Amino acid sequence: MPAAVLPRPRTTGWRFLLVFALATASVPAAAQSMACGTYKDSSGNTTLTIESEGHGFLSGPYQATEDLRMVRQEDVLGTGNLSTGRLENWYFSNDDRTVSTPYREFTRESAAACKTMPEPIEGGCVMNTSECLEALPEAEPLQLHAWCAEGVGAACMQLLETYQQQAKDAAPNVDEPPMPEICKEASPSFNAEGCMAVAEKVASEMMGKAVLGLQHSVDAPLPPAQLDELDALCRVQHGETFCADAAETLWSNGRLQQARDALQRSCAQRADAPACAPAEDLAVLASAAAPALAPVPASTLPCGSFEAERSVLSQIRFLAGGVVQAGGREQPLRASLRDGRIHIHRELGSDFVLQLLQNGNLVGIDGGNHFAYYERKPAAGGERCTP
To answer: Are residues 253 and 227 in contact, defined by beta-carbon separation less than 8 angstroms?
Structure first.
């Protein structure tokens, strides 16, 4: 079967592209040979490596490596990005010294002999790249799992997003706050102008949360089987982006040790990966006893001081009656228990959510405080408080 067929139309959002069908690893004899080697963009930060007749990748110090499926016909380079799911046509020019994409231009830095690309799995995503990437948004989890295990990062990400959306759809709706008496026409307290003032205040708070990024609630929990599946796929696939996102999901679902391991696998792909900072912080716990990352349900609010090396709230002090003093904040906050976790409330934005550990320390679970590890500090002068 030939690797390239006549261009066919494809619609992606508001754009209209002509993309080659990427079918097999072989190239017909009549096709122009691939210009293998390394190409740099004008900023010098991104490298395009064309490794074989059918494979290449984008890499750089500030981005996760992206795997590319390629096929060439004359000066047109059909690409399927296995990491992002994007299908595009790029173009050779200047005697193959230049590769132009819709976003930037690459100039050849060094030519190289093309390597032999391993035979793709029969009927897999790599063998049928165009059809596979176009089908990702509607594909069933079983199919996405197979493509992810094949090494297609975009399928891994789609599987994770599918599970998260399913959990969100299945979660009970949060009840809206009751209508204030001032807004009820039948109430003696009804006042149209006062009701409008209340509505404006609520709207302002909602806008503030959105603009300031203060909504960091915990995602809906995933079933244990799905968490096991995501952890296993990260161990096989080792993708930087997928393992980092899987680590966040595992962490917020209480799979702390698995999340730490996923962070380390993400960091192993690139020294400057975002996962490396939290992975380094948590690596010191690897040799500690198991309780260092063993979550337990909290039955009472903690008491005393806790500190974290890297956190939105680096210092927390729990006092009597659920009062919390947080470093750098003048006004005290309030804490309460919910489903075995500690919620620290604030006037604007979602709660800070903490998980108690078997060794008495705490970790941040909410989206804005992922991977924070709070160590209990000795009480000063026999400090006591009633939770």
So the answer is: yes
* Higher pLDDT pick, 31 / 286: 286
Q: For residue 377, how many C-alpha atoms fall within 13 Å in the half-sphere facing its CB?
A: 15
The count of other CB atoms within 10 Å of the CB of residue 317 is 19
195: Cβ contacts below 8 Å, ≥ 6 apart: 180, 182, 183
> For residue 292, what are the contacts with CB-CB under 8 A and spacing of at least 6?
285, 357, 359, 361
- Whether residue 321 contacts residue 284, with contact meaning beta carbons closer than 8 Å, is answered with no
Residue type, 20: F
Q: Give dist(CA 79, CA 77) in Å, integer.
A: 6
Angle, CA 325 vertex, CA 320 and CA 326 arms, to 5°:
150
Q: At what angle do helices 224-237 and 141-149 cross, to 10 degrees?
A: 30
Which single residue is written with the structure tokens 């009970």?
172
The average pLDDT across 316-325 equals 90
Which region holds residue 386: left if phi is over 0, alpha if psi is between -120 and 50, else beta?
Answer: beta
pTM of the model: 0.80
Residue 335: closest CA among 325, 344, 327, 346: 344
At which residue do the structure tokens 């750098």 appear?
328
271: left (phi over 0), alpha (psi -120 to 50) or beta: alpha
Compute the residue count for the chain. Answer: 387
Q: Which amino acid is at 109?
A: E
Q: What share of the chain is helix, strand, coil (3-state, %, to 5)?
A: 30, 25, 45
DSSP-derived secondary structure letter, 61: T
pLDDT of the residue at 313: 85
Of the chain, the end-to-end C-alpha distance in Å amounts to 71
CA distance 264 to 282: 9
